[in-house]
Amino acid sequence: MEFTQEKGLYLRIAPVLIEEELKDSFLDYAMSVVVSRAIPDVRDGLKPVHRRILYTMNQLGFHYNKPYHKSVRIVGEVLGKYHPHGDQAVYNTMVGMVQLFSKRYPLLDGQGNWGSVDGDNAAAMRYTEVRMEKITQELLHDIDKNTVDFVPNFDESTVEPVILPSRLPNFIVNGTSGIAVGMATSVPPHNLTEVINGCLALLKNENLSDEELFQLIPAPDFPTGGIICGKAGILKAYTTGRGNLILRGVVDIEETKKGTALIIKELPYQVNKSELIIKIADLVKNKVIEGITNIRDESDKSGIRVVIELKRNETPQVVLNLLYKHTSLQSSVGILMLALLDNRPIVFTLRQVLTEFLLHRQNVITKRSQFALEKALSKEHILIGFGIALNNIDEVISLIKNSDNSDQAAAKLNSKFMLTQEQCKAILEMRLQRLTGLEQEKINSELKDVQKEISYLRSLLSDKNLLKREIEEELLQIKDNYSDERRTRIEGPVDNVTEADFIANDEVVVTLTKKGYIKRVELSVYNVQHRGGKGKMAMASLDDNDDVLQDMFVARNHDELLFFTNLGRIYNIPVYQVPEASRTAKGRAIVNLLPLNPNEYVVKLLCTKDLDDKNLVMLTKKGIIKRTLAQEFGNIRSTGIRAITLNESDELVFCSLSSGQDTIVIATAKGQGIRFKEEEVRAMGRQASGVIGIRLHEDDYVIGMEVLSDETQDILFATENGYGKRVKISDFRIAHRGGYGVRTIPTDKRNGQVIGLVVVGDNMDILLIDEHGKIIRLSSKEIRTLGRQAKGVRLIKLDSGSKLAGAFAVVSSEKESQEVSE
């Protein structure tokens, strides 16, 4: 320690480590921010600046039933007496207390421009006017009855309340947010009726279970409405003080003259409408969201209305899911119920918040009752003195007349009637009109009323149940005066949103070539043509690669796609993960989608959503058939699983789903076919090899299989030269599996070998594709039903040197069946 002389004085200088000084100074600053600025008190839910504004307005008498006053006057008064910070900090706080979209129950009633949900700033404080809302009186009720402590202001020229006596659970009702040093608070607003009900329930039963409490207060309630998705994060916040919730805007789907439109009617809490519209426009511009043609803001004083017009045939729910994903139309609201209690920051649970409010009310009512009791006792004391004086009025008047001054008169009254100084002073100041008989009766009646009040106040202070009843009556009164309906809806969680939710569940045509190129095309691309038409290109010519179409079927984007390979393995992906391509595009190599082994290729595609109570029937090139419960293929690894064990030199060629009670038709390239009951093939495990389905002649092989449940339909056989015929299913008698079968269609020079069979009905269309990728779609009604020995009719006019590669059936639509392709 050193001493140094400066200006004739000796100063003591102590060395201090800079690390310690920085630590102490920063901690002091941090606690000042926590206590004096950013964090509210759990009892009245107010930060110091909010409390000072309300107290100032109460002192000035700017109540809800009085005229409006300039905001600048209030700001100046707050700055000059209580809050020595920037004027904009005070005014911005006032703005937040006025805005209907910021506070669930606004505390100030403003007149003028106070900003908007579009992010517009409020007008300058010299232009706006303000007064307190009616509900604000509940925060300041009984403040003049010694209910709360007061401390000197910053210059000790006056005093200010440490806390307001609030009859309103403002901390949880209006919510709050604030960032301090090393901590923050974020409490969403709640519905007053629900919170009061929770307080009343806790008041009656301190051991109320969390489940019962959370039923009374199920979730926050935001001033801008919206939809809360799920309650898991809310329940966590209510039980631990920390959590979050998913909040969505309210969007309706409407049909307008221009088509379908999304109408945004409610925004998530604290979302800027203008910024949201700009964000949507940018997403459309950058092609992140497609399908939107126009965005129009039709909001007015009656409410929010943002119109988002969609392209024709666009799926509204898909666009809406994309808006939820990429914009603040869906937002996450964090919950951290941090507040001060006796100047200590604490994270509270919902139960603790309500409990602290009820304890606060008990303390306020106790102090108010003590204050009222002291006043009543003082009044009783004076009234008793009046009674003594009135009973001896002549003597009292004589005594006063014979006194030289008031002090002597007081001394004589004290000596003669044992009256106290306060009683003597009151008697001396009593007006002569109180000596009338009517006034005397009034004094006696007033004395009885005061004594009755004293008795009640003493009971209130000594009886805890009576104190609780007083709190209950106050809460019920507030509920009756200010209750309203919940604005925010509560719905199920959205945690299970998948990629499929962003894809329209449209019908598509999935095609696969022998070389392993796959694609999906919207079904509407292929219009209906007449029998014998020349068709429409489904993909670019495959001649250069010696590639032909192998499989094609119609599915929806959300369906599950099963890939069966020649090696007897099975893979799966959703249909929407198949690359979308144009009608003439080649598609994408399937090896980029599936982890295929060397010499492994896909031989069959199946599509299904639900595998329960179904069987999977598999057929090999050599006629071996196998039936397995489809549910065994419910959980397929990304690397695939084994579906069938194959014999040497055999390979899997066809698969289909069945009910277990169907019949099976197998066809070969040489025009043979067999029909037998599915029951003849017993169900086997995934590792089994199967049994004989059809015996084959030399050089013959299986080209197709159909599983039939409707015996009234027909079977269409198609040959490689573009001919085919419909045959009644009943023309094929039911035999036993393992035979050679019967003739299906002649395989002479005109027809060529059989390339496929499909089950058809009059409500179906046939898709035919040649080996060059050209597709024709024709109605099955144009193909007449023939006998089993008939040679058939021309289905498609093939180009020279081309052969038919596949035939497929789809359900026709009336609209499409009326269209004819050019």
TrEMBL record:
EC number: 5.6.2.2
Keyword annotations from UniProtKB, A to Z: ATP-binding, Coiled coil, Cytoplasm, DNA-binding, Isomerase, Nucleotide-binding, Topoisomerase
Location of the protein in the cell: Cytoplasm
HAMAP family, A to Z: GyrA
Topo IIA-type catalytic domain ranges (all copies): 39-502
Protein name in UniProt: DNA gyrase subunit A
Entry GO terms, CC: chromosome; cytoplasm; DNA topoisomerase type II (double strand cut, ATP-hydrolyzing) complex
Family, as annotated: Belongs to the type II topoisomerase GyrA/ParC subunit family.
Chain's role: A type II topoisomerase that negatively supercoils closed circular double-stranded (ds) DNA in an ATP-dependent manner to modulate DNA topology and maintain chromosomes in an underwound state. Negative supercoiling favors strand separation, and DNA replication, transcription, recombination and repair, all of which involve strand separation. Also able to catalyze the interconversion of other topological isomers of dsDNA rings, including catenanes and knotted rings. Type II topoisomerases break and join 2 DNA strands simultaneously in an ATP-dependent manner.
Subunit structure: Heterotetramer, composed of two GyrA and two GyrB chains. In the heterotetramer, GyrA contains the active site tyrosine that forms a transient covalent intermediate with DNA, while GyrB binds cofactors and catalyzes ATP hydrolysis.
Predominant location: cytoplasm
Pfam family, one: DNA_gyraseA_C
One function term, GO molecular function aspect: ATP binding
Active site as annotated: 127 (o-(5'-phospho-dna)-tyrosine intermediate)
Keyword Nucleotide-binding: yes
Leftover remarks: Few gyrases are as efficient as E.coli at forming negative supercoils. Not all organisms have 2 type II topoisomerases; in organisms with a single type II topoisomerase this enzyme also has to decatenate newly replicated chromosomes.
Gene name of this polypeptide: gyrA
Segments forming a coiled coil: 457-488
Motif extent (GyrA-box): 529-535
CDD domains per UniProt: TOP4c (cd00187)
InterPro entries the UniProt entry points to: GyrA, GyrA/parC_rep, Gyrase/topoIV_suA_C, Topo_IIA-like_dom_sf, Topo_IIA_A/C_ab, Topo_IIA_A_a_sf, Topo_IIA_dom_A, Type_II_DNA_Topoisomerases
Catalytic activity: ATP-dependent breakage, passage and rejoining of double-stranded DNA
